[in-house]
Each structure stands twice: as structure tokens, then as C-alpha cells.
Write a structure and sequence with these properties.
By secondary structure, the protein is α+β, with helices and mostly antiparallel strands. Helices cover 63% and strands 10% of the residues. It folds into two domains: 1-65 and 415-433, no CATH class; 73-396, no CATH class. The two termini are 17 Å apart. The mean pLDDT is 85.
């Protein structure tokens, strides 16, 4: 009977020690990303005694707290936040390419350009105001070229960043598939796979932020990772991704099937939107501003005459923000600016009516100024909308994480209470061993 009591007490010591070790591990990993709270589940051991006395207690399993729905909510929220954040960074860079509002911005330079024509209108025979017009035009051309170059660089940077995300994603997908395989092997060997599950959880969280992945728990302990409904990890198989196409139609495709992976979240989705939609639109609108400027100015100049009564030269050559230039022939000879509205001599020499008409083109509804203002206002509105999305999605992601943490996370206060209870149970088992030992010694000494 004494041996049975000692066996029961000893099983209690072992079980409670395992429970305390589990609680200690929870406390040590309270702030570890991907860690899921663990619980040592105790079950009674049946005894073979005729009186029906049990055989003690054992740890049947160490289980992890989990909620698949809450975990999926976190993954989706993280993906949406990462998507908006990536787009926000690109749009902020685009806005920074235009010093608006400010004295160095294109809007102020356009205003100075139109005003400079007043100088020619007031003193058509003077070279100084003509040189001022050429200088203002060169400032605009330089600013347009710099803005275009910055947008092009943003496009290149975004594409490079997307390539890095895709490369990192391929590595993560392979690691998740490997962990799936290891978890199955651990379960088959009867060992605890929980640390492997924690590692996999952290990888899945990163995939959610990178490419909008969502993981589904499978009955065999593995997870299936999907992006846009396409399975990229199944069991020990991992697909690889690649970039195909060019800016404007760039896509992420499966290396295995060749199908386009429809990213709806994560950095990749935000970067793709910037590369295919936003930046090309900004470049197109900036080109339109440059072309409107050239067309407006050159058309008005074509209606005028030089001081000699001859047709003048166009002020701008080329097209697009990157290709626009001030006519070198006009730079070399400012008298080629057609400021006069008449070809009759000597009236043409002191006639500045065409220059005055040019000055009055400022801010016309179909001119470059209005096109540029509409472009800048649209860019600002899109950035503000994205900022609002980031703010709202941050709140959603935090709430989703808190909901999951309440179920699967470690609550240090609760763990400390559980530790105290487990320690008391351990001490009770130890007390039973001490009591049984004392009784057996007393019985032996009385014989």
C-alpha cells in the first residue's frame, strides 16, 4: 500500500513539475512574436487495485491555445495595413518631388513665366525682358525634368523593393513547407511540435504583411497558405513566385502554374498599385502639363512677328516633362521671340501686343497652370485618402491582434496565479511522500 501511495505522490510531482515548466516557458515568451500560450493537460491514471484506487496523474499533452478565425482576421488586417503603408510611402515620395506650395515649385515658376511677358509687352525693343522670359522658361524645363526623373526613380525603387519582397516570400514559403514536414514528423514520433508551430506562426505573420497571405490549419497539423485564393503552400510543397511584365502591367505569377497571383494585401499589393497605376498616371499627367505649356506658348508665338516683321521661332521644343527644352536658337538670339502682333514696319519694332496676349494666358482653363493644379490636388487627395486608410487599418489591426492575444497570448497575471496553484499542488505531492515515508519508517521500527 505504501508503494502505491508513493507512486501516486511521485506522479503528482512529475506532472506538476511539467506544468510549472510550461508556465515558466509561457512567461519567458510573453513578448515573443508568434508564440502561443501552452497548457499542460493532466489526466488521472487508472489503478489496478481491487479497491478502485487510482494510479495517480500524468501529463497527457501540452496543447496550444488557438483560434483559427481570429488568427485569419489578424493576417487579413496585417495584410491590409501593410498594403496601405507601402502605397503611402510611395505617394509621399511622389508628393515630395513637387515643392508645392513654395517659391521653388512649378506653380510659382509658371506664374513668374507669364508675368515675365509683361516686360516684353511694355518694352518690346529691349533685350533684357526677352532674356528674362528665356530664363523663366529654362527654370520650368529644369523643374519638369527633375520631377520626371524623381518619379522615374520612385518607379525603379518600388520595383526593386517589390523584387526583394517576392524573393523573401519565396524563402518564407519554403520554410513554412519545411516546418509543415517537421511538425508531421514530430507528431509521428510522439514529440512536442509546439515550438515548430510557433516558428511557423511567425513566418505566416510575415507572409501576411509581405504578400497578403492567409493560412488555414489542416487536420494533420500542417497549414495551407493562400494568396488571393491560390494555394502557395500545401503540406511539404511550396510554390515559388516571380515578377512578369513591365511597369503598367507588372504582375506576380506562380512559377509552377504560370497563373497570376492576385495579391489583395501586403506590401506587394501596395507596391504593385504604385508601379502599375499611380506612378504611371502621375508621369502621364506631368507630361500633359509640359505638352500643354509648349502648345499654348508656341501657338501664341506662331500668331506673332519679330521686330523685323518676320515669323518668330517656337520657344519650346520636344515633348513630355523629360523631353521638353527651350529652343537653342531662341536662347542664342532672343529677338526671335515674336512679340509683335503686326508684320508691318516700322510698327513691328515697338509692338508688344502678342507678348501682352501671351501674358494674359495665365491660368486659362485649358492651359498648363490648371492642368498642373488639378494634378497636384489629385495627388494630395490620393495621399490623404491613403493616410486615412493607414490610420483606420492600424486600429483594425491592433483590435484584431488584441482579440487573438486574449485567446492565444500569454497573460502574465493569470500565469502567475496558475504558477502559485501548481506550486501548491507540487508541495502537496511532496508532503504526501514525506508523510508516507514517515509512516513506513514508524511501521518498520515497531516491528
Amino acid at each position: 500500500m505504501g508503494d502505491m501511495a508513493l507512486g501516486i505522490a511521485s506522479s503528482g510531482l512529475d506532472a506538476q513539475q511539467t506544468a510549472m515548466d510550461t508556465i515558466a516557458q509561457n512567461l519567458a515568451n510573453a513578448n515573443t512574436p508568434g508564440y502561443v500560450n501552452q497548457t499542460a493537460n493532466l489526466t488521472t491514471l487508472t489503478g489496478g487495485d481491487a479497491l478502485g484506487v487510482g494510479g495517480g496523474v500524468q501529463v497527457s499533452a501540452i496543447t496550444q491555445a488557438s483560434d483559427g478565425l481570429l488568427a485569419a482576421n489578424v493576417q487579413q488586417a496585417q495584410g491590409a495595413l501593410a498594403q496601405s503603408t507601402a502605397l503611402q510611402q510611395v505617394l509621399s515620395g511622389a508628393q515630395a518631388a513637387f515643392a508645392e506650395p513654395g517659391t521653388n515649385g512649378l506653380s510659382a515658376q509658371l506664374s513668374a513665366f507669364w508675368q515675365s511677358w509683361d516686360g516684353i509687352a511694355q518694352n518690346p525693343s529691349s533685350l533684357a525682358p526677352r532674356t528674362q522670359v528665356i530664363g523663366a522658361a529654362q527654370n520650368i524645363v529644369t523643374t519638369l525634368g527633375q520631377a520626371s526623373a524623381q518619379l522615374t526613380q520612385l518607379q525603379s525603387n518600388a520595383q526593386s523593393q517589390l523584387g526583394s519582397v517576392v524573393s523573401a516570400t519565396n524563402t518564407l514559403l519554403s520554410q513554412v513547407a519545411s516546418l509543415n514536414n517537421q511538425i508531421i514528423a514530430a507528431k509521428g514520433a510522439g514529440t512536442d511540435p509546439n515550438s515548430l508551430v510557433d516558428q511557423r506562426n511567425a513566418l505566416v505573420d510575415t507572409l501576411s504583411s509581405d504578400i497578403g497571405a492567409v493560412a488555414t490549419n489542416m487536420p494533420d497539423g500542417t497549414v495551407m497558405v493562400r494568396v488571393g485564393g491560390i494555394a502557395l503552400v500545401q503540406g511539404s510543397f511550396a510554390d515559388t513566385l516571380q515578377l512578369t511584365g513591365a511597369p503598367g502591367s507588372l504582375a506576380i505569377t506562380s512559377s509552377t502554374s504560370g497563373v497570376t497571383v492576385p495579391t489583395t494585401g501586403g506590401q506587394a499589393s501596395g507596391l504593385l498599385a504604385a508601379i502599375n497605376q499611380y506612378l504611371p498616371a502621375y508621369e502621364s499627367q506631368l507630361d500633359a502639363v509640359a505638352n500643354k505649356l509648349a502648345t499654348t506658348v508656341n501657338t501664341q508665338l506662331a500668331a506673332g512677328y519679330t521686330a523685323t516683321g518676320a515669323a518668330g521661332l517656337p520657344l519650346f521644343t520636344g515633348s513630355g516633362a523629360a523631353g521638353l527644352a527651350v529652343n537653342p536658337a531662341v536662347v542664342a538670339d532672343p529677338t526671335q521671340i515674336a512679340a509683335s502682333s503686326t508684320s508691318t514696319l516700322p510698327d513691328a519694332t515697338n509692338n508688344g501686343a502678342n507678348a501682352q496676349a501671351m501674358a494674359e494666358l495665365y491660368n486659362t482653363t485649358t492651359g498648363p497652370d490648371q492642368a498642373y493644379q488639378s494634378f497636384i490636388q489629385g495627388l494630395g487627395a490620393q495621399l490623404q485618402d491613403t493616410n486615412n486608410q493607414v490610420q483606420a487599418q492600424t486600429s483594425v489591426a491592433n483590435a484584431a491582434q488584441q482579440n487573438l492575444q486574449a485567446v492565444a497570448g500569454v497573460n502574465p497575471d493569470q500565469e502567475m496565479v496558475q504558477m502559485l496553484s501548481t506550486q501548491q499542488a507540487y508541495q502537496a505531492s511532496a508532503k504526501l511522500i514525506s508523510t508516507v515515508s514517515t509512516m513506513m519508517q514508524a511501521l518498520l521500527s515497531s516491528v
